[in-house]
């Protein structure tokens, strides 16, 4: 009976994969995706398995777990994950799943522990994942070394933490090494999270990313952001004007003097980093463009660093300015639901009320996030309609969105071509 059930499930899974492959094969490049990619539960499950369980995901900051025993948790689809600081500053990540009967081990978002103790029957694990003791009598043949926590790959790069659930993750060292170089001036081990927000958007994660990859919508929607943000997304933006190029050249000379990197670097379509100027006369993403924090980040001497933008598909975009940084993490919850977490970072010695004012620090991105949430939710409502059909992206205004969708389609097509292992 159970064999029959598994066979039926395998057939269903295979049918979904074949349907997804055919839809991607038939899609028109330069157009939005066919509807099921934005709202179908089965394709969402495929996204989780083939994208989120295989790619390097931004998971937070090393400075959020500074001490031995500090941990934080997150979910990658159905997979609860724990990231913990162990001995000698080492950072470990595990499936947050007890090896006894599978209970979730740590149920809080963050904290500090001496050992990882399961709340159900008190199996106790070392911070490096080894099982130290099983609470009850497990018999003479039981060997604790067979029951360590299942590890997850984790890479700390320039103070940003990335996890990867694959057994053998793709080698992203060139990106991580470059990130370390770009983030060095910010001394990210010595930042603190001054504020954070976690909002739920009633939309598919791809609509959240698509919305972020263009500023075509900024004019009508983001008055606060446009007080300081250039409408050009990159230094090689096809729309860049002569005035913008002149401003870039002038700022790059200043950045050379500060010895901070700014060149646009891409790693395939997945990762990009570049430093772009803010509007002339402004230095930080605040409503009036003045710094939100008097104490600058790292070794920086001038607040006028523009914004170092770092993209990590599928789940993060970031802005590093001279006085503060804003990091973003996208966690899909369901086909129509996505969590967007934003953290505002300042120098760890900056004092609230003295060096920075919380309301001023977070105002622009709180407003922008809420505006983007509304745009994504309206996008989702329309995409769910029987009248929806893929629409054309603008090659000049939405090249970033085209890049994302092409990356997604290629990754998915590659994954679908791979031999499926039989159901376990
Ligand atoms: O994250 C950004 O820089 C902006 C917000 C709106 C569009 N995007 C390019
Ligand atoms: Fe964790 Fe029993 S499930 S100790
Ligand atoms: Fe936006």
UniProtKB/TrEMBL annotation:
InterPro entries tied to this protein: Rieske_2Fe-2S, Rieske_2Fe-2S_sf, Ring_hydroxy_dOase_asu_C_dom, Rng_hydr_dOase-A
GO molecular function: dioxygenase activity
Record domain Rieske: where: 56-163
Keywords linked to the UniProt accession: 2Fe-2S, Dioxygenase, Iron, Iron-sulfur, Metal-binding, Oxidoreductase
Required cofactor(s): Fe cation
Pfam family, one: Rieske
PANTHER family linked to this entry: CHOLINE MONOOXYGENASE, CHLOROPLASTIC
Protein name per its UniProtKB record: Aromatic ring-hydroxylating dioxygenase subunit alpha
Species: Cobetia marina (Deleya marina)
